[in-house]
Amino acid sequence: MRVTPQGLYCAPGDFFIDPARPVARAIVTHGHSDHARPDHGAVLASAETLAIMRTRMGEGRAGREQQALRPGEAVTQNSVGIRLVPAGHVLGSCQVVLDWQGSRIVVSGDYKRRADPTCAPFEPVVCDVFVTEATFALPVFRHPPAEAEITRLLDSLRLFPDRAHLVGVYALGKAQRLIALLRQAGWDRPIYLHGALLALCELYEGLGVRLGPLAPVPSPAKRGGGGLLAGEIVLAPPSAEATAWVRRLAEPVVCAASGWMRVRQRAKARGVELPLIVSDHADWDELLETVAAVQAPEVWVTHGRDDALVHALGLRGVRGRALHLLGRGEEEEDAAPLPAEAAPAAETAG
Question: Which branch of life, at top level (predicted)?
Answer without folding.
Answer: Bacteria
